[in-house]
Amino acid sequence: MADTAYGVNAPEAVKLWSRKLAREALKKTYAKRFMGTGSDSMIMIRNETNKGPGDRIRMTLRMQLTGDGVVGDQTLEGNEESLTTWTDDLVINQLRHAVRSAGKMTEQRIPFSVREEAMQGLADWWADRWDTWLFNQLCGFTPANAKIQLTGFNEIKAPTRIVRAGGAANDQSLTTFATHGFSLALIDAAVEAAKVTTTGNVPPPIRPIMVDGKPYYIAFLHPYQVSALRITTTASQAKPVLWYDIHRAALQGGKMDNPIFSGALGEYNGVILHESTRITQGVHSSTGAAVSNTARAVLCGAQAAVCGFGQGHDQSTYDWFEELFDYGNKLGVKAGCIAGLKKSRYNDQDFGCIVMSSYAGPIDLTPSN
Questions:
Q1: How far from chain centre, in Å, is Cα 267?
Q2: What is the maximum alpha-carbon separation in the chain?
Q3: 43-46 and 35-36 beta bridge pairing
Q4: 56 or 172: whose pLDDT is higher?
Q5: CA torsion angle 209 215 220 221 (round to 10)
Q6: Tens digit of pLDDT for each residue in 295-352?
Q7: Dist. CA 87–CA 59, nearest whole Å
Q8: CB-side exposure of 65: number of CA atoms within 13 Å?
Q9: Distances (CA, A) of 183 to 176, 254, 359
Q10: Which of 3-17, 110-124, 182-196, 199-213 has the highest average model confidence (pLDDT)?
Q11: Are 217 and 191 in contact (CB under 8 A)?
Q12: 99 or 276: whose pLDDT is higher?
């Protein structure tokens, strides 16, 4: 009886392990469930560089016309309105990582396949990288600009749409749980800011994501902020909203099969709440350093972020390459992808997200006496 085996970089092996890597990374990546090519997607995939050469995608936003128009036989000539358009650029680049075995004798001592474990390790690494890209961008965590591998290959910009607990002027002023803890009022303020804009719609209202004809925003909270919601109520509300009411709302109407509801904590004020450890700390307004004991939750609408891929790559296709070293004694495995991600910004304004900064720390179990 003959066994079927694929050697290093056999075409079948490359395809097999590339598919395995993409499948595992897809399952483990939080960001991927919000990606799509439609304009209603929270993370819109742009396919221009996937289908042709180039390392940059230029996107154009046309603003709504604001003129009054003319009535009856009034003269229209000379009263026309010019179009107002803004642009945003998405840059893509190549990112690779690799694993190498210590050698055949080491492999002899272990009960698992180095190739299999390399695939699992690289899948974990890619999942971590996509989620890090997404939340560093959405939260405006500018300290991450020090390492391009953490930015999605696009400069992270400080948030231009931001609300803070207790009306604090900056993140370093978020100093106490009692005054600056996360609350439903902060979500209400973000929803209001998403819908109501200044004269001329600059920045424009944030467009919600439509699910079965109903509009929703998506909010991502740090676990500390989720704990704050669970243990506190909002005194200003006539009837405090209990945590189980929020959770129950996500289960009504059979919505859980939709990706934006999958894994959700619940729903409040038209916002689907999700928890993520990738939510970043705050940023000091003067020094630009991370501020401990703060977190930047973020509310998102349609096209809050954009991503793109190079030719031969997409969200389910990665490069897979194997190489033998030291006269065939050591196996090396590389996985790479040409891609990029950034939050959408037009006219130097965040387009589809609002940061919600609050004091954030572990629950204090110290006895009060």
A1: 19
A2: 91
A3: parallel
A4: 172
A5: 170
A6: 999 999 999 999 999 988 877 778 888 888 888 888 888 888 999 999 999 999 999 9
A7: 5
A8: 8
A9: 13, 27, 11
A10: 182-196
A11: yes
A12: 276
Reported as type and span, the H/E element at residue 51 is: helix 48-51
- Positive or negative, the Cα torsion across 342, 345, 349, 350? negative
At residue 276, the 3 state secondary structure works out as coil
DSSP per-residue codes, 131-145? HHHHHHHHTT-GGGG
- Distance, in Å, from the CA atom of 317 to the CA atom of 71, rounded to the nearest integer, reads 56
Domain boundaries, the chain: 164-304
User: Hey, how many other C-beta atoms are within 10 angstroms of the C-beta on 155?
Assistant: 12
Can you read off the two tokens belonging to residue 166?
Answer: 């207790």
Which phi-psi region, left, alpha or beta, contains residue 291 (left: φ > 0; alpha: ψ -120 to 50)? Answer: beta
Q: CA-to-CA distance for 331 and 367, rounded, in angstroms?
A: 55
Residues 6+ apart with CB under 8 A from 93: 55, 148, 153, 338, 339, 340
> Looking at the DSSP assignment, which residues form a beta bridge with residue 211?
214
Is residue 178 scored above 60 in pLDDT?
Answer: yes
Could you tell me the two tokens for 284? 């000091």
Tens-digit pLDDT profile for residues 182-210:
999 999 999 999 998 765 566 889 999 99
pTM across the whole model = 0.87
Alpha-carbon gap, residue 333 to 318, rounded angstroms:
13
Please state, in angstroms and rounded to a whole number, the distance separating the CA atoms of residues 274 and 171: 22
